[in-house]
Each structure stands twice: as structure tokens, then as C-alpha cells.
TrEMBL record:
It comes from Candidatus Dojkabacteria bacterium. The lineage of its organism: Bacteria, Candidatus Dojkabacteria. The keyword Transcription does not apply. Keywords: Membrane, Signal, Transmembrane, Transmembrane helix. Residues 257-331, 348-443 form the SbsA Ig-like domain. The chain crosses the membrane at residues 12-36. Gene3D superfamilies: 2.60.40.3710, Cysteine proteinases. Residues 472-619 form the Peptidase C39-like domain. This is Peptidase C39-like domain-containing protein. Pfam families: Big_5 (PF13205), Peptidase_C39_2 (PF13529). The keyword Mitochondrion does not apply.
Length: 645
């Protein structure tokens, strides 16, 4: 009994010790977490896409995961360029007011040349008087690539119809479609496409002739797309592959001419075989429809011509039919019917134009081309040509029946034009046209762009770091114009040369009119203004000028003269706010939330009244802002510009 009590007592002591140890560890972890939670500001711990990577697909949500639980009510997420969709914030451990993870579900797709910035302001822990700004940068989903095809390129086709299976490295986005180009594709109805995930099934509806080589180009057409509506204003074509096929002889028959759907009525009809043909059997098995009087002329024992005394009928489908059992001289015979069809030339049709119908942003120095499906009377085609608004010009003809119209003067900017040919274009060999062919396009805005280095995937040296958030945009803007003048300086060396002040006790103590306000590597701080920036240029003999309280027209005129302008503006994403602080030298510093730098390198419209301003942005790369938005952002710091000559 005593032994039982002693064992029980020891077990109880062990349990208490274990419980106290577990409690101590739990308290220690809570204390450490509290110290970490209090001592570290929130940051983006994980994201999809990761910063400076590629968004795999618009079908995937953007995911932002913070290091700390933060207040939902203060979060203001923005995406540039703007893309429609909805943000959903998870509740942290069921606490509705706190979150650590948010997801953005897009309802829009943009073209693959976009660079996105996700910028979240108002990041704040519960119980803290703070407001942080965090962001990531990534590129739009890429255009898919062809990784496999069936049949394989170069394969010999044994049938008249061609079915192609394309395997892509990723699925098409909602704003992307497959477009084919080939000599065998006469119209939009010449092929059909079915897409299933990353597989594309193509059915060529045109009949393939035996013994010929075919080349098919595969393009992706993409544009801005909304789930409920689409816009063709930003359509672009990207070639993703080219496939070559060869058709095989059919039962000894390797070719029949003519072929196609615009055959001249006086064309010769010839058949070529791989083996010697029995002439008597050939005449017995030959059926031509519609029928006409003909004679058979053997050029060689493997090649025969169908002679006729009159021309073929226009706009008519003819069939050359060799019934099965055609004998060859070696004793073999065909096992199936050999049928070849062609269509004679009909009414004049337009088969291609440039610029494309309903296209936008066309250059004002433009040559208009109209390609006919057959030879036409040039004078009648020129007389039938029209363009509205009316434009004077001259005509040039090419051997492939293409009419080119060259305007005497450049077209107007931002103008809708309609062009085409009226009915009555006279055919040389076929039938005259009986309908009007009409097309439209829109010219681009007047555009002035300077070749100044900018942030891009191919030039990452001009992109300010994003993770953790860098506050060196003003320095990177200066780096761009220095490179434009032939000087390659690192941001750290620029900050070191202009001087920096990183003293901060809840309020900055430095003066951005004198030095860079922030730490030496630019990862934390406010930034720097125009005077220190000008000193860097002056020290290298680069002439520059600071202009304050400027106008957009004055800015555009400097760009038109060929001189980029460094500017300071509101970034368009942070919580809007102006404030001041008194620097340690006694000067009152005028500041704004979301202060951001960039270089103006172009504009659209006239310099007197530009409609859009082009910015080389250390975050976004090359971006366009409409003039009203740009002026609003620029006004926060009194429209200051540093002109670099």
C-alpha cells in the first residue's frame, strides 16, 4: 500500500513539473511573439505572384499574405494598371476585423506586355497608431508557346483534310484567341478551332491537294477583355509558331492543276502520276463535271493534259474524277476514286487589306493596301477606291493584284477613317464586283517619345527594389537621366554623393531640399527633392534647370525640344495627404504621403494641349497618364520639374 502511494505521489509530481514546464514554454513563446509583434512592423511575408516574377494566369487570384494580422478596415489595395475584379480578405482565426491574407479575383485580362504593381496602403496593427504602405511588382501572364504538335511538323499528310492538335505550355487567357495564316486559308471559315485547357484542336476546312508543301503560321490575338464585354482597341497579334506539312501522293496521283477557287477560265488541266498510266484505262475512268468536250493529250506516260476547245465557265466548281480501278502499266490499279475539284474565277473579291478593319492607333504616315483575289482593270479599281474623310494621294500596283494608296500628306491624328472600293471593279478574267467593300481604322494620337532608359524586364537596373519596399524612386529617376547623358551610377553611390540623413523618432529630421532623407541604401526613408538632384548633374557638367509652378504645356514643349524632365508627384495609390515637419536645420519641409519620382519622356496630342503624358516610372516602367490625372498628381508638390539638357 505504501509503495502504491509513493508511486502515485511521484507520478503527480512529474505531471506538475511537466505542466509547469509546458506552461513556461507557452508563456515564453507568447512573450517572444509579443516582442516580435511589437518590435517589427508588418511586411508582405508571401505573395502570388512573387515580386518581379510573372503572373501565370488571370484565372489565378493575386494573393497577399502579411507577416502580422492587420486591420481590415484601414486596408486600401490598388493595382496599376487598373484591372477590374474583387478583393476578398480572410478573417484571422475567426476575428472578423483582422486579416493576414487577401485575394484578388480578376474579371478582366490585359495584354501580355503589362507590368503590374499591387500597392496596399493603410497597413496597420490593432492597437497601434501607424499606417504602412507595402507593394509587389510582377509582369502580366505571357503568351503561350507551342510545345508539341500532331501531326509533327514536316509530316506527310495522306488525306485531303488536315486536323491539327497543338499543345501549349499554358492555357489561353480569356483575352487570347488562336489565329492561323496560310496560303490555303482563303476566308475566316477556312478553319475551325476548339480549345480545351492547353490543347488546341484545329480543323482545316479547305481541301489539301496531293504532293504539295503547306506552311501554317500560328498567332495569338490578344486584347483587353472584360468578363461581360470586350474591347478591340488594344488588340495585338503575337506569332507563336509555324508548322510545315507535305501532302502525299494519292494512289499514284501526285498532283492536279489547276487548284484553288480563282482559277482562270483558260487554264490548262494537267494530272501527274508517279507511275506509267494505261491510256485506255485513263479515258474509261475519267469523268469531268460539269461536262465539256475535251481530248486527252499524253505529255509523258506519267503526265496528261485535258485539252478543250472553249474556255471554262466562270464562277463554276469543276470536278476531275478518276474512278477506282485505274490501271497502271505495271499491272497495279487504284483502290479508290481519285477526285480533284477547283473553282473558276468569279466576281471580284477583296481578300486582304491594310490597315486591318476596325484597328486603332495607326500611324499618320500610312499606306493603304487593298488586295484583290484576281487581276482587275487598274483604272476601274482606282476610280472605285474611296477614303473618308477625303484624302488626296496616288496609286501604286503590285504583281499580286494589290492596290496601294499613298496619301500626299500625313493623315490627321485621332481621326476615324473609312476606306474601300465601290461596286463596279472590272475583272480582267472573271466577273465584275457587284458589292461595296468597306473598312475602317483610327489613327493614333500625336506622339512624342524620348529614348531615355526606363524600368523594364530587360532593364531591371532602373527598377527600384520592391521587396522590402524601397523608398529610392527619386534616386532611380535621377539614375535614368544620368544614363541618358552617359553616366552609369548606382543608387547607393548617388545617395552617398548627395548625402543622407536617416534620423527618425516618429518624425523625420532631415531636409530633402538638402540631402536624401532616409538610410544609405534607400530601403527606408522619404526621398529627396530637386536641389540635391541638380547638384549631382552640375558636378558632371550636365546643364539642367529647375522650374516651379509649371504648366503641362510648358513641360510638353521641353519634351518636344528633346529634353527629359524629372518630376515629383503623388503616386496615385497611397492615402492622400499633405504634411510638414521641421528639419534639424530649422527649415519647414513641405511633404506628401505617397511622394513619388519619375521622368517625363513623352506626350500625346499637341504640345499646346497634350492629352496624355508618358512617364518613365521606377515602379511601373513606361506608363501613360491622361493629362488631367497627371496634373492632379503633379500639383501636390507645386508642379516642379528638373529639365535635363
Amino acid at each position: 500500500m505504501k509503495l502504491f502511494v509513493k508511486v502515485r505521489k511521484k507520478s503527480l509530481i512529474s505531471f506538475v513539473v511537466f505542466f509547469l514546464l509546458l506552461l513556461f514554454i507557452l508563456i515564453l513563446l507568447l512573450v517572444l511573439y509579443y516582442l516580435w509583434y511589437v518590435g517589427n512592423v508588418p511586411y508582405i511575408k508571401w505573395s502570388y505572384p512573387r515580386t518581379e516574377t510573372v503572373w501565370s494566369s488571370y484565372k489565378d487570384p493575386i494573393i497577399i499574405s502579411f507577416s502580422h494580422p492587420v486591420k481590415k478596415s484601414t486596408l486600401t489595395p490598388r493595382i496599376k494598371p487598373e484591372i477590374k475584379g474583387v478583393w476578398v480578405w480572410d478573417s484571422w482565426f475567426g476575428i472578423d476585423g483582422l486579416t493576414k491574407t487577401g485575394r484578388f479575383y480578376p474579371s478582366q485580362s490585359l495584354t501580355s506586355d503589362q507590368r503590374f504593381v499591387v500597392y496596399i496602403s493603410g497597413v496597420s496593427r490593432k492597437g497601434f497608431n501607424e499606417s504602412h504602405e507595402l507593394g509587389i511588382v510582377f509582369n502580366a501572364p505571357k503568351v503561350p508557346k507551342i510545345i508539341d504538335t500532331l501531326p509533327r511538323p514536316g509530316a506527310i499528310q495522306t488525306s485531303e483534310n488536315l486536323n491539327i492538335k497543338l499543345k501549349l505550355d499554358k492555357s489561353l487567357e480569356d483575352n487570347q484567341t488562336i489565329v492561323l495564316r496560310s496560303q490555303i486559308l482563303k476566308t475566316d471559315n477556312s478553319y475551325s478551332i476548339k480549345v480545351l485547357n492547353n490543347l488546341v484542336y484545329v480543323n482545316i476546312n479547305e481541301k489539301l491537294e496531293p504532293g504539295l508543301n503547306y506552311n501554317i503560321e500560328v498567332w495569338v490575338k490578344e486584347g483587353d477583355y472584360l468578363s461581360e464585354e470586350s474591347s478591340s482597341s488594344s488588340n495585338r497579334l503575337v506569332k507563336i509558331g509555324q508548322i510545315n506539312y507535305q501532302t502525299k501522293e494519292v494512289d499514284g496521283l501526285i498532283g492536279v492543276t489547276p487548284n484553288g477557287d480563282s482559277v482562270k477560265v483558260n487554264e490548262r488541266i494537267r494530272l501527274r502520276f508517279t507511275r506509267d498510266v494505261d491510256p485506255k484505262s485513263f479515258e474509261q475512268k475519267l469523268v469531268i463535271s460539269p461536262n465539256f468536250d475535251y481530248k486527252v493529250k499524253w505529255i509523258t506516260s506519267k503526265q496528261v493534259e485535258i485539252l478543250r476547245s472553249v474556255n471554262l465557265e466562270k464562277d463554276t466548281v469543276y470536278s476531275i474524277h478518276l474512278k477506282n480501278g485505274l490501271l497502271y502499266s505495271d499491272g497495279t490499279s487504284t483502290k479508290s476514286d481519285l477526285i480533284h475539284t477547283f473553282k473558276t474565277i468569279g466576281k471580284v473579291q477583296v481578300v486582304d487589306v491594310f490597315p486591318l478593319n476596325q484597328s486603332a492607333n495607326q500611324p499618320v504616315k500610312l499606306k493603304i493596301k487593298i488586295k484583290f483575289d484576281q487581276e482587275v482593270d487598274k483604272s476601274s479599281a482606282e476610280n472605285s477606291f474611296f477614303i473618308f474623310p477625303k484624302v488626296a494621294g496616288k496609286f501604286v500596283w503590285y504583281e499580286d493584284n494589290t492596290l496601294e494608296f499613298i496619301p500626299e500628306k500625313q493623315l490627321e491624328y485621332r481621326m476615324n477613317y473609312t476606306f474601300g472600293v465601290k461596286p463596279g471593279v472590272i475583272s480582267v478574267h472573271g466577273l465584275d464586283s457587284e458589292k461595296e467593300f468597306s473598312y475602317s481604322f483610327r489613327t493614333r494620337d500625336n506622339l512624342v517619345v524620348l529614348n531615355v532608359p526606363t524600368c523594364s524586364p530587360s532593364s531591371p537596373a532602373y527598377c527600384q527594389p520592391q521587396y522590402p519596399v524601397s523608398f529610392s524612386c527619386n534616386v532611380y529617376a535621377l539614375k535614368m537621366v544620368l544614363a541618358w547623358k552617359g553616366y552609369n551610377l548606382s543608387p547607393r553611390s548617388i545617395i552617398s554623393e548627395m548625402g543622407y540623413d536617416d534620423e527618425y523618432d516618429g518624425v523625420w529630421k532631415g531636409n530633402p531640399n538638402k540631402v536624401y532623407v532616409g538610410n544609405a541604401d534607400g530601403s527606408w526613408g522619404y526621398g529627396v527633392y530637386w536641389d540635391p538632384s541638380k547638384r549631382i548633374l552640375d558636378s558632371r557638367g550636365i546643364r539642367s534647370e529647375i522650374v516651379k509652378n509649371w504648366s503641362i504645356s510648358g513641360l510638353a514643349k521641353k519634351i518636344e525640344e528633346g529634353f527629359p524632365v524629372v518630376i515629383w508627384r503623388y503616386n496615385g495609390t497611397s492615402k492622400v495627404g499633405k504634411y510638414t515637419w521641421v528639419a534639424k536645420d530649422g527649415e519647414t519641409v513641405k511633404a506628401i504621403s505617397g511622394q513619388h519620382g519619375g521622368v517625363v519622356t513623352g506626350f500625346r496630342g499637341s504640345s499646346e494641349n497634350p492629352t496624355h503624358i508618358l512617364l518613365n516610372d521606377p515602379w511601373f516602367g513606361t506608363i501613360w497618364l491622361d493629362a488631367i490625372t497627371f496634373d492632379y498628381y503633379w500639383s501636390f508638390l507645386d508642379r516642379v520639374g528638373l529639365v535635363v539638357y
